[in-house]
Amino acid sequence: MTEKQQAEGTVGKALSVLDTIASIGHPVRLVELLPHTKYPKPTLYRLLQTLTAQSMLAYDPDRQTYSLGVRLVRLAHAAWNQSSLAPIARPHIDALSKKLCTTVHLAQLDNGQALYLDKRNAASPIEMFSQAGKVGPGYCTGVGKVMLAFLETEQQNDALKKQAFHAYTPNTHTSKESLQKELNEIAKSGVAFDNEEHEPGIICIAAPILSAKNRVIGGLSVTSSTRRHSLADLKDLQPDLLSTAKGIGQAAESWYFPDQNNSLKT
Amino acid sequence: MTEKQQAEGTVGKALSVLDTIASIGHPVRLVELLPHTKYPKPTLYRLLQTLTAQSMLAYDPDRQTYSLGVRLVRLAHAAWNQSSLAPIARPHIDALSKKLCTTVHLAQLDNGQALYLDKRNAASPIEMFSQAGKVGPGYCTGVGKVMLAFLETEQQNDALKKQAFHAYTPNTHTSKESLQKELNEIAKSGVAFDNEEHEPGIICIAAPILSAKNRVIGGLSVTSSTRRHSLADLKDLQPDLLSTAKGIGQAAESWYFPDQNNSLKT
DNA sequence: CCATTTTGTTTCAGATAGTGAGACGTAGTT
DNA sequence: AACTACGTCTCACTATCTGAAACAAAATGG
Q1: Looking at the domain assignment, is residue A50 inside a domain?
Q2: B10 CB-to-strand C distance under 7 Å
Q3: A183: Cβ contacts below 8 Å, ≥ 6 apart
Q4: Nearest-CA residue of chain B relative to A80?
Q5: Which of A18, A125, A245, B144 lies 20 to 30 Å from B16, alpha-carbon distance?
Q6: What pLDDT score does B2 carry?
Q7: Do both B143 and B173 map to the same domain?
Q8: Total structural domains in chain B?
Q9: CATH number of the domain to which B17 belongs
Q10: Closest Cβ–Cβ partner in A53, A77, A79 for B132
Q11: Which of residues 38-57 of A touch strand C (CB under 7 A)?
Q12: What's the pLDDT score for residue B121?
């Protein structure tokens, strides 16, 4: 009986409120937030109180608005730093970007989508949170497709169910079938191309980052624009890309915490 | 009766577990985490389950370890982006760093400490999460002191109680009194200097970022080393620093969400 | 100025979800 | 095989969360 789903709990509810506020994208008042959630007013009120008390939300008394709080930034800092991928990949990405003079992305699979962990841009440097933490579609980005392609069949199917198949451009895959077909090819060839499938004029080549046991732990891509390169040009970068991806995979594997002493030694 | 404190709730407990894992700084197993918390084993176990299910933690089945999850990174991305300070300050910081060819920091007050939101480094570019989200002491950094100095008396007192007064260097303030005295001077002069109080050889000049109502909303600093500059040199940068800080303050004020459409248009 | 509406906050009995001592399963050791 | 160490499960207990309804406080408007 009782359908299915559910199984949240107070913590789940609180976190979903955070997500909702994040998706709205600006500070919100209680009533504005209310229709976006499925909770009655007093419940939502209490959740907001709790989260505010925990610094997960910031409350502006003047405007009576809630926005995402600083504790998140602090925690994410730690998360990024102690992730077994991002900090390790950093020097490799630096080197690759410098050598090829192109934009390099590092991503990780998150619920069928590509979550960008790092970005190196040869020309205009510096991207902070504005890039890291961003999510892109799995079915029409280079890193997305390559990570999907190297997934175990079962996980791949799960992930495929979560794709939106929105046609951003004429080249975007719009069905599971056509995507699946390309994924098989990608798995064989070892690299994925984004042929303006997400944004017109933007192309890229992407490789998987694999663990020793061949599990996908991330994706690495070199991005360019059609006015600067062709897909064939990108293909030439494949050796560099693959060796960097391999290097990162090995580093991530062999490392596994050399007890880096960041933490809060404040 | 019953002493005082408490007042957590399930959410608070769950979040404190996140903090604990963050402070440990590497993936942990259940038993390793256990002594760091005040929860009995089955309770902690369930909290970990919940957080893992929510992607706030990542679980490595091979090693049976938990580490901070990707959802944090996603949320922090949103938090950074929709904060009324960091994204707005970005171009100003870029310009300042470029003009002066120095390292520039943007920080915000977080529980008496300086939480770094952004950093621009003239020489070696790029600092991602490795910098943003980092916290530094309030009593012995330029941004920290300047933000404390411009606080309302009451909030200042609260914040002062939270200072550790650890003597990082011979120049570090080690008492509330000596710090308080300097804070008064800072409030008058409008800028704070860090005279190697946190790290030997590192000096900086910092200015507050103020809202229209003169509330401190952040701190901005220009950092250098004693081998490159003297405090007097930094003093010469004061006009540039102040005008940038003012510019950021005004931008943050006038803006207040022009309904930027980031969100997750994935 | 008071009436009206909207939004934020509090109450409280009832329902749920969290709690943790203890038992149990499962590796890994000796 | 006995032992140890750790992860997982059970279950009666109860702390916590729930949300309709009432209330308070602003904002609105006539």
Answers
A1: yes
A2: yes
A3: A145, A148, A149, A156
A4: B129
A5: B144
A6: 34
A7: yes
A8: 2
A9: 1.10.10.10
A10: A77
A11: 41-42, 45-46
A12: 78
For A77, the closest of B11, B129, B259 (CB atoms) is B129
* CATH number for position B199: 3.30.450.40
Shared-domain flag, residues B241 and B209: yes
What confidence category does residue A211 fall into, taking pLDDT thresholds of 50, 70 and 90?
confident
Q: Is the pLDDT of residue B95 over 60?
A: yes
Q: Based on the domain organization, do B231 and B115 belong to the same domain?
A: yes
Residue of A nearest to B166 (CA): A266
A254 Cβ neighbours under 8 A, 6+ residues apart? none
Domain residue limits at B123 = 75-255
Q: What does the block give as tokens for A232?
A: 């064939």
B103: β partners: B223
Answer whether any strand C atom is within 7 A of the Cβ of A30.
yes
Residues A107 and A223 in one domain: yes
Inside any domain, residue A147: yes
Statement to judge: residues A88 and A58 lie in one domain: no
Q: Provide the pairing of β-strand B113-120 with B135-136.
A: antiparallel
Q: Which two three-digit tokens encode residue B39? A: 């929860």
Let me know whether B28 and B138 are in one domain.
no
Specify whether B156 is located in the same domain as B113: yes
3-class SS string, chain A: CCCCCCCCCHHHHHHHHHHHHHHHCCCECHHHHHHHCCCCHHHHHHHHHHHHHCCCEEEECCCCEEEECHHHHHHHHHHHHHCCCHHHHHHHHHHHHHHHCCEEEEEEEECCEEEEEEEECCCCCCCCCCCCCCEECCCCCHHHHHHHHCCCHHHHHHHHHCCCCCCCCCCCCCCHHHHHHHHHHHHHHCCEEEECCCCCCEEEEEEEEECCCCCEEEEEEEEEECCCCCHHHHHHCHHHHHHHHHHHHHHHHHHCCCCCCCCCCC
Which of B41, B68, B95 represents a domain boundary (last residue)? B68
* A:B CB pairs within 8 Å: 232
B205 and B167 within one domain: yes
B140 in any annotated domain: yes
pLDDT tens per residue, range B198-250: 999 999 999 999 988 888 999 999 999 999 999 999 999 999 999 999 999 99
Q: Is residue A265 part of a domain?
A: no
Q: What is the pLDDT of residues B119-153, one digit of tens each?
A: 887 665 444 444 788 899 999 999 999 999 999 99
Could you tell me what percent of chain A has a pLDDT over 70? Answer: 89
pLDDT band at A257 (very low <50, low <70, confident <90, very high): very low
Last residue of a domain, one of A44, A72, A100: A72
CB–CB contact B135 A264 (8 Å): yes
Q: How far apart are CA A15 and CA B1, in angstroms?
A: 33
